Amino acid sequence: MKLKKYLNVLKRTKLFSGIGEDEILGMLSCLQAKKLELKKGDYVYRAGEHLSCVPLLVEGRLHIQKDDFWGNRSIINVIGVGELFGESYIAPDSGPLLNDVVAAEDSVVICLDANRVITTCSNACRFHQMVVQNLFYEVSERNRRLVQKLGHMAQRTTREKLISYLSEQSQKHKSASFEIPLNRQQLADFLSVDRSAMSNELCKMRDEGLLTFNKNSFELL
Amino acid sequence: MKLKKYLNVLKRTKLFSGIGEDEILGMLSCLQAKKLELKKGDYVYRAGEHLSCVPLLVEGRLHIQKDDFWGNRSIINVIGVGELFGESYIAPDSGPLLNDVVAAEDSVVICLDANRVITTCSNACRFHQMVVQNLFYEVSERNRRLVQKLGHMAQRTTREKLISYLSEQSQKHKSASFEIPLNRQQLADFLSVDRSAMSNELCKMRDEGLLTFNKNSFELL
DNA sequence: CACCTTTTGTTGTAAATGCAACAGACTTGT
DNA sequence: ACAAGTCTGTTGCATTTACAACAAAAGGTG
Prior knowledge:
2 copies of one chain form a homodimer.
Chain A: H1 7-10, H2 21-30, E1 34-38, E2 43-45, E3 53-59, E4 62-67, E5 73-79, E6 100-103, E7 107-113, H3 114-118, H4 128-154, H5 158-173, E8 177-179, H6 184-191, H7 195-207, E9 211-214, E10 217-220
Antiparallel strand pairs in A: 1-7, 2-6, 3-7, 4-5, 4-6, 8-10, 9-10
Helix pairs in contact in A: 4-5
Chain A binds a DNA duplex through residues 156-159, 183-185, 193-197, 199-203, 215.
């Protein structure tokens, strides 16, 4: 396998937390890991497909997004290195994917066989059970993050949405200055507002001394 | 225990799916089940608390909601009979609750000890492992529903939000006519719009022949 | 029935938003 | 260095929304 080069990433993921390098390599073959390489802009999956594997991002960045009939785009979620995505579609009656998954940069994904992940196997994988628990924790965390995003979206004005989102980012980075993984258009799609109106509001907030920014770098004051 | 009267509900829950009545009763004591009775309007939990149990609703209806500094209310989610809530807070590093949980009607909740739920015990609970898997499936489903709600919230206009929500309800009930579990104010809080503006829009849509409604009953045309 | 409370619908106005169009800054590739 | 393309900020305008205040309808209680 050519997955060894990602071992450094894998051992830091939530999924394999508490599991040693050697065991991870063993589990990768037990879970029938397959590598998927993607160029920026490639679709990893499209809405309507059925997932039979659990994908894990080991390089790059992905967007979970949806385009409606009129071409309006919503970015539901941003997936970073080490994160799973599509874990919620392992359940047998979960139906097809509701959203597209697109590579926001050149990316590498490792796919694990869905059935083998949830079915604790009888052979040597001593740590399989731990993986199942980690998986549960990861779905739980995504759950909490989705609720947090709902918190942003529930804000009525563009300004409130921005403050809500930037506050969260600041907390996440434990610093008043931080970089966000989205450009203006993407941030607008993420918060479900008009880009120009948002740009306008950002500048107003800067002029009022609430924050400063430069490209993707922000600082709250 | 006085939990026998809820056995009919419990055996239909996702959590205990595939598990017989006798086993359920056994597990309830193994999981240190405790009953919690609530009057309409009571707070089950408040944002900031730490959960040490997994609550399961067996009677009534709950709202997961949040009031901001200015008194604006957002209803994040509606919990019906048989559903878990707060499952995402079992994980050890999950921090405090972000939202309030309030009884929308007189309700009864059964609390299961969080540690005992995820730690498959050594004694007689043969079905414990199955419960862990069911738990995972249930969090997954909630996850997918949250994404669906994000889909409603991402709509730009009140009308689009209404159509998005009502379409989902129609699909869920597999019928063009159905009842929703929210009154006007609650629906507005759920979709994060102004009640009067929403009321207005609903009437316009009715006048245009898109739908009819009477109190909580809707029919799409 | 009369009274009170809750829920729902209606209207007007100020404010915020979406949209379109454009200009300047910055990138990228040749 | 140039051209083409992308990203960001700016402006004006029509539409939509939030907010407040009120009217009408429905429900509950003595």
